[in-house]
Specification:
The structure is a single chain. By secondary structure, the protein is of the alpha+beta class. Helices cover 39% and strands 10% of the residues. It has 18 helices and 12 strands. The strands form 4 sheets. The protein has a 5-stranded mixed β-sheet with strand order 4-8-6-7-5. The protein has a 3-stranded antiparallel β-sheet with strand order 2-1-3, with no helix packed on it. Strand 1 and strand 2 form a beta hairpin. Helix 9 packs across helix 12. The radius of gyration is 28 Å and the shape is elongated. The two termini are 52 Å apart.
C-alpha cells in the first residue's frame, strides 16, 4: 500500500478473521505496535498476522471462470508417490540450506510473509518443546530438495539462527533477544530441535505430485496454479517458458517493468504455447488448467530445435501484436452506452483476448509482411469485433467453456481472414489516414450529432454499403461513434 509520499508500506492480514492492518490507519507500522496489541475485529494476537504482499501492477491472476475441478486419480491404481520420512534437527537443515542442497525459496515460493511476531512465536514454541507441524520437501531431477510446504517455518528459524531479527514476545526474558543473546542452553535447544520432514522423491508421478502440492497449499497463503505447475514440471521446457516470460518485449506488452512475482507472466506464455501446439480444438471443457498441464507433459523431453522454433514464433507474435495494437495490446475496447456514446479501452489485460491475439499472429497462421501491411485495417476490424455483443460476452463470461473457447477463436480467425484474404476485391475498410483526416476536419457523429472524443471511438462507414457496390472513398464515407453505428436503426448511417 502506498502512502501519500509514495513510499510502499506493508499491510498485514489476520489469519483468524481476515482483517487487514493498514499503516495508513495507525501512527506506526505493524512491527512497531505494542506486543499486547490485538486484532480490532477478533482480538487475535500479533502472531496471528502475516504480510500481505502488494501487487506490482494490475495484472490479475487467472480465476479460470466457470471451470470445474479435476477428478482425483483412482486410489485403487498402482502406487505413484514415493516418499522418504526423517526427523532432522534445525542446525542440520540450515547447513543443507547454506550449502545449496535445500532450497526454501524456489521460484514458486517467493515470499517470506510472516511478521516478526509470528516468527518469534515459532521460536518460543521450539524453546517450550511444543510440536511443530511437519515440512514437505520434493526432490528435483538433480537431487536438490525444494520446500513445497513449510517455507515460512524453516525460513523463520534459519533467519533467527543467523541473527536477522530479535524476538518480539510478551515474555520479558526473551523479547528483544537475538540468537547470540540467548544462553548456550537455549541456543542448543533450538539447534538440536527436531522436525518431521517428508520428502517426495523424484521418481514420483508428476500428476500425483501436483495433486499433493494442491492439497498442501489449500491454506490462506496458497500457491497459484502456475507456481504449482512450476514446482512439478521442472526441466528444460519449464526453464524455456520462464526465459520467454523474461524477455523485455513481452514484459513491455504486459505493462510490466519486471517479472511478475506470482508467475502470471509465465502462465500467459504457456497459454500461448498450448494453443499454438494443441490448438483451441483440444481445449477441454472448463479445464484450462488441465490444458496447460498437458502442454507441460507433452514437452517433458523437448528437442532444442522445437524450442527454438517455438521461441521464434512467440517473438513474432509478440512483435505483431505490438505493431497492430501498440499500448492497447491485449486490452479490450468497450463501446459506449445509451446515455454516453463514448467508448474506451480497458486498462487491464484480458486473458481470453491475449490468447486469440497472439495465436492469430503466429507465423503459421498469417505471414508477417501481410500483417504489417494491413495493421491499421486489422486494428479497425478488431475493435469492431470487440464491441459486438457476442464476442464481448465471449471475453467476459464462462471463458473456459469449450464451445465458447472455440467460438472465440473462430470469430477472431474470421475477422483476420476478412482483412487479409481476397484483397483483390478492393479495400473493404477505410484507411486509418482517411479516418484521421475526417476526424480532424469534423469530429461530429453523423448519427447522434455529438462530438466524437477519441479517434479509436470514431467509426467510418460506407453510406452505400460495400456489399451493394459502395466504394471505399471519401465521398461515400460517414464518421460516427462506434456505439451509434452499432445501434443504428435503418442499416445505414446518416450523411
Amino acid at each position: 500500500m502506498a502512502s501519500d509520499s509514495g513510499t510502499i508500506r506493508t499491510e498485514y492480514r489476520c489469519d483468524d478473521c481476515g482483517y487487514v492492518f493498514s499503516p495508513a490507519d495507525y501512527s506506526d507500522d505493524f512491527d512497531s505496535l505494542p506486543t499486547e496489541w490485538t486484532c480490532p475485529q477478533c482480538q487475535a494476537g500479533k502472531d496471528h498476522f502475516q504480510v500481505v504482499v502488494p501487487p506490482t501492477n494490475d495484472l490479475e491472476e487467472e480465476n479460470h471462470s466457470g471451470e470445474v475441478p479435476d477428478e482425483a486419480p483412482d486410489p485403487s491404481g498402482p502406487r505413484r508417490l514415493y516418499t522418504s520420512a526423517s526427523t532432522p534437527d534445525f542446525a542440520g537443515l540450515q547447513r543443507r540450506w547454506k550449502k545449496g542442497a535445500l532450497d526454501t525459496q524456489p521460484d514458486f515460493q517467493r515470499y517470506e510473509v510472516w511478521s516478526d511476531q509470528k516468527k518469534s512465536a515459532l521460536i518460543e514454541s521450539i524453546l517450550l518443546d511444543l510440536p511443530i507441524p511437519q515440512v514437505f520437501l520434493a526432490q528435483d531431477d538433480n537431487g536438490k530438495a525444494v520446500v513445497i510446504d513449510g517455507q515460512q517455518r524453516l525460513t523463520a528459524v534459519f533467519r533467527y539462527l543467523d541473527g536477522d531479527f530479535a524476538l518480539k514476545l510478551a515474555n520479558p526474558r526473551l523479547t528483544g533477544k537475538r540468537f547470540k543473546d540467548l544462553s548456550e542452553e537455549l541456543q542448543t535447544r533450538i539447534e538440536d530441535a527436531k522436525i518431521s520432514v517428508v520428502e517426495v522423491l523424484k521418481e514420483s508421478d508428476p500428476e500425483i505430485r501436483y495433486l499433493l502440492f494442491q492439497r498442501l497449499n489449500e491454506g490462506s497463503v496458497s500457491l497459484n496454479d502456475q507456481e504449482l505447475r512450476n514446482s512439478v514440471f521442472r526441466g528444460p521446457y519449464n526453464d524455456f517458458i520462464k526465459e520467454l516470460a523474461s524477455e523485455k518485449t513481452w514484459l513491455k506488452l504486459l505493462g510490466l517493468k519486471e517479472r511478475h512475482k506470482r508467475m502470471v507472466d509465465v502462465e500467459l506464455v504457456l497459454r500461448y504455447m498450448a494453443f499454438r501446439e494443441q490448438t483451441y480444438l483440444k481445449h477441454p471443457d472448463k479445464k484450462t488448467g488441465k490444458f496447460l498441464d498437458r502442454q507441460m507433459t507433452l514437452n517433458a523431453n523437448p528437442t532444442h530445435s522445437s524450442m527454438e522454433e517455438a521461441r521464434k514464433d512467440f517473438r513474432t507474435a509478440v512483435e505483431l501484436v505490438q505493431t497492430v495494437f501498440g499500448e492497447r495490446a491485449l486490452r479490450r475496447y468497450l463501446p459506449g452506452g445509451e446515455s454516453d456514446h463514448r467508448g474506451a479501452w480497458e486498462s487491464r489485460i484480458n486473458r481470453a483476448l491475449i490468447d486469440v491475439e497472439l495465436w492469430g499472429f503466429s507465423p503459421e497462421r498469417n505471414e508477417k509482411g501481410l500483417v504489417v501491411k494491413n495493421a491499421d485495417a486489422i486494428r479497425e476490424a478488431a475493435i469492431e469485433l470487440m464491441i459486438s455483443p457476442e464476442f464481448s460476452a465471449l471475453l467476459t463470461y464462462s471463458t473456459s467453456e469449450k464451445k465458447r473457447v472455440e467460438r472465440r477463436f473462430e470469430l477472431w480467425k474470421n475477422m483476420l481472414d476478412s482483412v487479409l484474404k481476397n484483397q483483390d476485391q478492393g479495400a473493404r475498410a477505410f484507411s486509418r489516414t482517411t479516418k484521421e483526416d475526417a476526424f480532424k476536419t469534423d469530429p461530429t457523429c453523423a448519427i447522434c450529432s455529438q462530438k466524437i472524443q477519441s479517434i479509436d471511438d470514431a467509426h467510418m462507414d460506407h453510406m452505400i454499403p460495400f456489399s451493394k457496390g459502395g466504394s471505399t472513398t471519401w465521398d461515400n464515407a460517414a464518421l460516427t461513434h462506434r456505439y451509434c453505428n452499432l445501434h443504428k436503426s435503418d442499416g445505414t448511417p446518416s450523411a
